[in-house]
Amino acid sequence: MSIQEIRLFGDPVLTTPASPVTTFDKELRNLVKDLTETMLDAPGAGLAAPQIGVSLQVFVWNIEESDGHLINPTLDLSADLQDGEEGCLSFPGLTYETPRAFRAVAKGFNMHGEPVTIEGTELLARVLQHETDHLNGIVFIDRLLLEERKLAMADIRNSDWFGERTPEQVAPIFKLSPHPTNGRAL
Ligand code: ZN
Questions:
Q1: How far is the C-alpha of 57 from the C-alpha of 35, rounded, in Å?
Q2: 178 — pLDDT class (breaks 50, 70, 90)
Q3: How many angstroms separate the alpha carbon of residue 94 from the centre of ligand 1?
Q4: CA atoms of 162 and 31, how far apart (whole Å)
Q5: Measured in angstroms, how far is the CA atom of residue 22 from the centroid of ligand 1?
Q6: Partners of residue 66 on adjacent β-strands
Q7: 152 in a structural domain
Q8: What pLDDT digit, counting tens, does each position of 44-101 carry?
Q9: Is-contact 90 48, C-beta < 8 A?
Q10: What is the pTM of this model?
């Protein structure tokens, strides 16, 4: 068990679709542990394996009403949408109004290879969508409306972490925000 370095936007692993898990072994259980520890340490509300440089379809989450992990997920989304601010541990300090489906049903597997279904609305639905996107090489700024996305790209270019990371900066400081994730990014 160990806390891993969180990869920041600009790292190609974040825009590469992750591979499905095929072997449900001790290595996978260790990955779930590392993800959970790294998320809690950040602290974050969710974390996907590509964010620690592992291109496998695994994510973890931890919000007030629910926590857990999910492997090889597929999503079923409601047509109705929700508003809300969203952030990401791979974009330190940045949050944007991000449209998402109001309700999500995620089907996948637990670390023992048993099928599981996670259903959620509002924040849990948002987390399931954000993390499943990570596994498909999609980051949350890809979900922004055009004007908001332009703003985000400018903010990213102006951020002190973008393209400037050195090995010492493994734990970037980022401001907490009073948003629906209770100030914790995904
Ligand atoms: Zn994220």
A1: 12
A2: very low
A3: 11
A4: 26
A5: 23
A6: 63
A7: yes
A8: 999 999 999 999 999 999 999 999 999 999 999 999 999 999 999 999 999 999 999 9
A9: no
A10: 0.90
Residue at 1 is within a domain: no
Domain-embedded: residue 23: yes
3-state SS record for the chain = CCCCCCCCCCCHHHHCCCECCCCCCHHHHHHHHHHHHHHHHCCECEEEHHHHCCCECEEEEEECCEEEEEEEEEEEECCCEECCEEECCCCCCCEEECCEECEEEEEEECCCCCEEEEEEEHHHHHHHHHHHHHHCCCCHHHHCCHHHHHHHHHHHHHCCCCCCCCCCCCCCCCCCCCCCCCCCEC
Q: How many domains does the chain have?
A: 1
Q: How many A from CA of 134 to the centre of ligand 1?
A: 7
Q: In this structure, what CATH number is given to the domain that contains residue 149? A: 3.90.45.10
Domain assignment of residue 177, yes or no: no
What does residue 11 show for φ and ψ, rounded to 5 degrees? -75, 125
Q: Which domain holds residue 115?
A: 12-169
Give catalytic residue positions.
131
Q: What six digits make up the tokens of 78?
A: 């409601």
What token pair was written down for 97? 């109004």
